[in-house]
Every structure is written in C-alpha cells, then in structure tokens.
Input
Amino acid sequence: MTALPSQPSTKKLGLVIDLDTCVGCHACAVSCKEWNTGGPAAPLTDLNPYGKDPDGVWFNRIHTYEVSQPELGPTAGQTVHLPRSCLHCESPDCVTVCPTGASYKRAEDGIVLIDEDKCIGCKLCSWACGYGAREYDQDAGVMKKCTLCVDRIYNENLKEEERQPSCVSTCPAGARHFGDLGDENSDVSKLVAERNGFDLMPELGYKPTNKYLPPRPKSGPTSSYRPLTIDKQETVDSRFLKWVDRLFSR
Amino acid sequence: MHPALSVILFTTASGTGYGLLMLLMILNLNGLLPTDRGLGMAGFAVGLTLVTGGLLASTFHLGHPERAWRAMSQWRTSWLSREGVAAIATYPLVLIFAAGWVIVGSTSGGWSLAGWLAIVLAAITVSATGMIYASLKTIPQWNNPLTVVNYLVLALAGGAVWLTSVGQLIGIDTNVLVLLTLLLLPISWALKYSYWTLVDKVPAQYDIGSATGLGGLGDVTLLEPPHTEPNFVQKEMGFTIARRHAKKLRRTAVIFAFVLPTALMVGVLMTSGGLATFLSVLALLSVSGGLLTERWLFFAEAVHVSMLFYGTQKA
Output
C-alpha cells in the first residue's frame, strides 16, 4: 500500500551526517555498494564498469561544494563534502505516487523501501524525490534505493556493534551516526539539538528524517595572513641568462 | 526532464483520442452530430485506436510491462494509478455507447447514460494524466493548475481537428465541427501561451543554498560532482534545453499546433468536396506534429530540483 502510515511512526530510524567532520573520502559510498550488492536490492548493477562511460546504481553519492564569501575576500570560504542518500522522509511523495504499491514506508520504524517484485519500473517515484535518492536499475527493470541497511540493523547474526548501516560503521572520520530520531533522548537527537542539525531542502515539505550537522565556523584569514602568490616572479636581467634561457627553451 | 518518446506519444495520442471520443459523444448527445452509422464506425475506430495505441506506447518505457496491471491498485494516493483505472473504466462505456450508435442505431435512453458516463470518465482520464505531472512539487514548472487545463484543452483541440477530418472523409456535413475547431484552437493557444508566460515569470522557489543547507555560510558552488559520468538521476532529470532553442521550438509548436490548423480550418469552411477534405487532413497532420513538439518541450523545458545538488543554482 502506497498510502503513508496513518499515524507517523514514533520510531524514526535515520542518519545524522556531520558536514564538519566528513572528509569526502567516499568510503561510505563504496562500503554501501559492497554491502547492498549482496543484500535485498542486489545486485546494484554496473553497466560497462571498465568501459568508456560506466553507469551503475549507487545509494550513496558524495558531492563536494565550495562555499565562498566574496565580501570577505577572495580566500574566504571553505570546502564542504556532502554525502547524499535517501533521507527516509516522514511524508515523502515518492511513496504516494507509486501506482503499484511497490514503494512503501514502514509504520514500525519509518524506513522507506521498495518491493522489487511489485515494481513496474515506471520511474515516477524518482521524479517525485527532490533529493535524487532513487536510482533505476536498467538491467533489472526496477527502481532501487537505500534500505538503511535493514538487513544489518535487525540482523541477529551480526554482533551488536555491527548492527548499523554499512556507511556508518565504515566511516573512518566518524561523521555518520545512526539512531532513532523519533526519540528525543537518543544520542542522535541530542547531537542534532546540540549542533543545530538541519534538513536538506525543507521547502519541499517532505520532512526528511536524516539530519545534517553544519560545518563549525572557521577561524578565517587573520590580518597577518597572506595567501601565497606568485606574482613577484624573479626577473632575469642578464642578457646572457636570457640567451641561455631561450637556447634551452627550444 | 528527459523527453521519453513513449511518454510523448502516449500523452499526445491518448489525449487526442479521448478528445475525439468526448466531442463525438457530446455533439451527438446534443443533437449536433447525426447518429450516422459510417461516422460512428469511423469515429469510434479512430478514437479507440489513438487511445489504445497511446496506452500501449506508455508501457514501452516500463521496466516490467508484464506487471502493468498492478498499476490499477493504488488509486487512493497515486494519480498514475487513477489514470489507469479511469482509462480502463472508459472502455466498456464507450463500447456500449458505440454499440448503440453503430449496431442498434440509437444513442438515446439507456445508451445516452453510457455516453455521458464515458464522457466524464474520459475527461477524468485526461485530467489524471495532467495531474501526474502537476502534482510533482519537485518540478516547479509543472506544479500549477494550468498544466491540467492545458492537457484537457489540447486533447479537445487535437480531437476536434481529427474528428473534422474523419467527418470530411466520411462525407458528412462538418460545419459544426469546423466551427468548434475554430473555437478550441485559439483557446488552447491562449492557454499554452499563459502556461509559457507563467513558467518564464515564476521566480525560482529552490536554490542550491537551501538544497544543501549551506546557503547561510556563503555562496555555494559545486566543486566536485560525486561521479565522473552522468548517473540515472542526471540522465533522467538533468535534460534541459537551451533557452534559444526553446524559443524557436515554441514558435514551431505554435505555428503547427495552432496557427496553421486554424487557417486550414477556415479553408475547409470556404471550400467543399475533395479540396475541403484535403485541407482537413493537412490540418490533422499539422496539429499532430505541433502537439508532439509542444509535448517534447513540456518535458525538455522542465527543471527538476534534484539538479541543484549537481550544481544548478536555481530551480
């Protein structure tokens, strides 16, 4: 059923991603690909992986942005890495537009999933998602998306500390956190409150569960700071050296 | 948005087919078209062929067309599902009305009830097609009431031109149809013009700063995309057409969908016999080509908000 649960789930499992800590190493994306190509959405098809224009399904994409403040000078600003995946929104249109009931949001924990056996591959859900989180598998003819590693987080065959999404346990910088954002006393909720966590594109009204923590303010260039410039190049005055330079420049 | 040929063919062919069927039934039920057996046979055959051809074309872009029946199930929330249900429900009613007209030679009484219901369902189907697009918050250009109005009126205008041609080929008096066409074409032109004006003037509601949440820290630009080759999202959602091409194509669409058919219809009104029929067929070809261009533009001009993550500044 593609109707959303009548009552929003009290448990809201999701991720908190720290943009201050993320170093943009793409380890989360690689680890996600590796785990999920063997999971419920398997395989995460790659087409022409070693060819000229490789194409494939990934649930996690890491964008790198430059945030500049031209009014504070040409060097003011910072680089921010932003991992982007399904935000497991509270009222997502990707679920309600699905004509077959393949796309659904779980009432018990808020995870948004696709029943691949029901998916007709019409791609409308990917049009309704503003975050580009759903990727169509051309080879399987069905839509695929982040499962929040539903096959890990409840998996009793795994050690308790491993029962979290692959991207979270692999992050070498500790920039990714997993937990219940519906419980205001959970570690993730406290982190969001403490660091002013925010939603991506809140105007869409989908109420994302995943939150992002803003980069901490940078100290910025001080008055004594001078960026390295090469505008004062040594000039060659000697005619002889100029001649040598020309000779060897040939 | 990527202008998929199957979806363009589907929306234009089915739209025109439903438009033709609606007008055929409305005009007959109001005594403006005779219950002529030849007209009934040709009209319903052409209308249902257009509708069916369009619906079949729409399944070509599916990953699993054999599961298409599942799309009937989620009519409570999904406009695509509602469209499917309404499209399927229209068939038996049209066929009943057509049977009354062609076999029994009557469109009154119980037959007329089936006719009116078929008209309503056909209108719901075309509106649902429009709503699939109009309901998407992620594509600001489509997310307005003019989208549905345009789908409905363009379906009627295209259907009117096709029906006039059918009438001419059957050899009935088409004056009513020509006059209706001359009414519908300028109306649809005006509505398409207001859609384009709206799309051009509406200020961007989303920007890269709000998408990434980094807007408060300064000017956001994409430094490095996540991958070197375009992925599904970029191929599907990232198709946009250069503004100058869009202007040229809009002009082409206006000429072929509205101006030329209007002029040709005036010609049909002033001539008779073979020449009138020839002019009406020319109008049919022109309006079909024009609508295909218009529909291609509808998709190609639309900007999807997910492209903000890939460096588009505003949407």
Observations:
- The two ends of chain A are 74 Å apart (CA to CA).
- Chain A touches chain B through 71 residues (CB under 8 Å).
